[in-house]
Amino acid sequence: FVNEGQQAEVKVQTFPYTKYGTIHATISSVSNDAINDEKRGLIYAMRAKLERSTMQVENKTVNLSAGMAVTVEVKTGTRRVIEYFLKPFLEYQSESLKER
After folding, report:
1. Beta-sheet strand order (sheet of 23-37)
2. What is the domain partition of the chain in residue ranges?
3. CA dihedral (93, 98, 99, 100) positive or negative
4. What pTM does this model have?
5. How far apart are CA 40 and CA 50, in angstroms?
6. d(CA 23, CA 7)
7. CA-to-CA distance for 100 and 32, rounded, in angstroms?
8. Cα 88 to Cα 70: distance, rounded to the nearest angstrom
9. DSSP string covering 38-80, please?
10. pLDDT: which is higher, 26 or 86
11. Pick from 67, 70, 32, 17: nearest CA to 48
């Protein structure tokens, strides 16, 4: 679940994060009501407060502006790398032994 105060990383789609990095942010609000999206199902709107409003691109400081597309990755917990690989197998094992 996403709550106010959680940490996040913002990736600005105009500037590839692998080259220009991300912007640290904090979740400042999460809507109480879900919005039904045809492709993604129920989603909750949220706001994130960025630690800075500029990006260093090449040798220039670029101001971020309204309308720029971003991806916000909210840190909801931690997992060990092996858990990423084992999760599908554990789910399969759990589901395969049930009677339907």
Report:
1. 41-50, 23-37, 7-12, 70-74
2. 7-96
3. negative
4. 0.71
5. 25
6. 11
7. 36
8. 29
9. TTTEEEEEEEEEES-SEEEETTEEEE--TT--EEEEE------
10. 26
11. 70
